[in-house]
Design brief:
By secondary structure, the protein is an alpha+beta fold. It contains 18 helices and 12 strands.
Length: 405
């Protein structure tokens, strides 16, 4: 769309798209998904079309964007490829000035060592690059204030609440790191408690917390029969996950050398969410599944793999969709927990240990240092029996039709 830009036009434009300024050759205003706009100088050089970012709105005003576009047009007329000249000017004024975008990248590179899932690294990089850098990427660490943070968050706080909340936390952490290293002073403008909470509504008040959809535990035996009819390593992995109340990452990253004496699976701390070693007593069907999986890929080091490569994070989810598309893999942990609480006399401690849940109460954590392997072995044996037969111990679970008879 081509029109003569005005401050009012730019301020109130909401529809995503690329808008061209009829008054300034090459100046474009790009809007994506109502998350704010940014200026671009579009030109041709050496027979190829290219775009030069001029900065994000409103940090860069219409007047400044036109100025930058005109300077870039003059460079082009002189036979030179346009450059972001203002960045070099800032660097010349203060060569030691550290920009947010550069420091953020350093921080993420350092922090990523603690993340098990590569997706977390991508999410940090992508959210900072997409939402924060257009507003504060070219600002010095000590120049960022509360209004800058609001400029970042307001366009997405009500429409992409979860993303905005996580982004706020990431920016807060980066700026806190800068304060610790004495690269900035004063209040952290991205802090929530006692600061942004006085301006923005709580995320939970905008978007209710969504739990992973779980299959009611009374439907587990029927589901397991349907799963048993599926072939392939993904079906085996999903059955194993359900029987042992695991997370997806624990199963797809599981190694054969983690199985001890053909009865205990010891997951090292580095692969656990709580960063503590987790010991799982394996029942008969779980051991059978491991034998079948080994026969399908004999030379692999993983518990479940194809051509010696671990399953993808979506393999079990895709298998689940073939049976029931309305629930999630992670939801089976809730199914197990509900069954243990509502149908059995097994201790709360054994069930929590089986799920490898972190203990927030320090005195309770000290009391529960043990692995409770004995009680958990009995618990998991009963859970396996229930999953496969609908009965456990001396208990018979009657389905609704038999109850009504």
């Amino acid at each position: 769309m081509k029109t003569v830009f005005t401050d009012a036009f730019i301020k109130y434009i909401k529809q995503a798209g690329r808008y061209t300024d009829a008054a300034t050759s090459g100046l474009n205003f790009n809007v994506k998904n109502s998350s704010g706009g940014y200026w671009v100088f579009r030109f041709q050089f050496a027979g190829k079309r290219a775009d030069l970012s001029l900065g994000a709105y409103p940090a860069i005003s219409l007047k400044e964007a036109r100025k930058r576009a005109l300077v870039s047009r003059n460079e082009l007329l002189q036979g030179n490829r346009p450059t972001a000249y203002w960045r070099s000017q800032i660097a010349q004024k203060d060569p030691d000035r550290l920009l947010f975008k550069d420091y953020a990248k350093q921080c993420i590179e350092t922090k990523k060592a603690e993340w098990q899932n590569p997706k977390h690294v991508e999410q940090w990089f992508n959210t900072i690059e997409q939402y924060a850098n257009p507003f504060i990427g070219d600002k010095g660490l000590d120049e960022i204030d509360t209004q800058d943070i609001l400029n970042i968050l307001m366009p997405i706080w009500f429409t992409k609440t979860e993303t905005a909340s996580r982004l706020r936390g990431r920016v807060e952490w980066i700026l806190a790191s800068a304060t610790t290293r004495k690269l900035r002073n004063g209040l952290n403008p991205a802090a929530w408690r006692g600061h942004l909470e006085t301006i923005l509504p709580k995320p939970t008040k905008i978007t209710p917390v969504k739990h992973h959809p779980a299959l009611p535990y009374k439907e587990i035996p029927t589901f397991m029969k349907a799963l048993a009819e599926k072939d392939g390593v993904a079906a085996l992995a999903l059955e194993f996950l359900i029987l042992n109340a695991n997370r997806t990452g624990e199963v797809i990253g599981g190694l054969r050398n983690e199985i001890i004496n053909n009865e205990l699976w010891v997951i090292p701390a580095k692969r656990m969410k709580a960063k503590r070693e987790h010991r799982i007593p394996l029942s008969n069907r779980s051991l059978e599944i491991l034998l079948v999986a080994r026969s399908l890929d004999p030379d692999s080091k993983y518990l479940f793999s194809r051509d010696s490569k671990p399953l993808s994070t979506m393999a079990m989810a895709m298998m689940l969709r073939k049976i029931n598309s309305e629930i999630t893999v992670h939801g089976f942990r809730s199914s197990f927990r509900d069954w243990a609480s509502e149908e059995t006399n097994h201790s709360w401690e054994a069930a929590e240990k089986a799920l490898a849940h972190a203990i927030t109460n320090q005195s309770e954590a000290a009391y529960r240092r043990g692995n409770l392997v004995g009680p958990r072995k009995r618990l998991m044996k009963d859970w396996e029996d229930y999953c496969l037969t609908g009965t456990w111990g001396n208990v018979i679970a009657l389905d609704s039709e038999r109850k009504a008879a």
